[in-house]
Q: What sequence folds into this?
């Protein structure tokens, strides 16, 4: 998207301070924060945790559960339905994390 239209906005010192604090919390520039507000996009505070790392760990755990499920199913060693339930729960958690912290486009 080409942004070739310029707009000047005058703020008081307090307004600029508030804008800057909110933008930093969302890990956005002031301009990015304003653009999202104009488009009525939800601006979320950036998470305190490293979300990509957290997603990778949940994904890794899901992969491990899946591998155990395959072995258990082939050898009849453990309660396969319980493992399937754990894998489904893992996928649900991953989806919730992704939806909660995904930044909208814009």
A:
């Amino acid at each position: 998207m080409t942004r070739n239209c310029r707009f000047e906005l005058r703020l008081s010192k307090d307004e600029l301070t508030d804008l800057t604090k909110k933008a930093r919390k969302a890990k956005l520039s002031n301009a990015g924060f304003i653009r999202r507000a104009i488009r009525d996009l939800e601006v979320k505070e950036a998470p305190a945790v490293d979300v990509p790392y957290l997603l990778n760990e949940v994904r890794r755990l899901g992969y491990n559960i899946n591998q155990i499920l395959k072995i258990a199913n082939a050898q009849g060693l453990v309660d396969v339905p319980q493992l399937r339930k754990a894998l489904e729960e893992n996928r649900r958690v991953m989806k919730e994390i992704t939806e909660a912290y995904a930044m909208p486009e814009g």
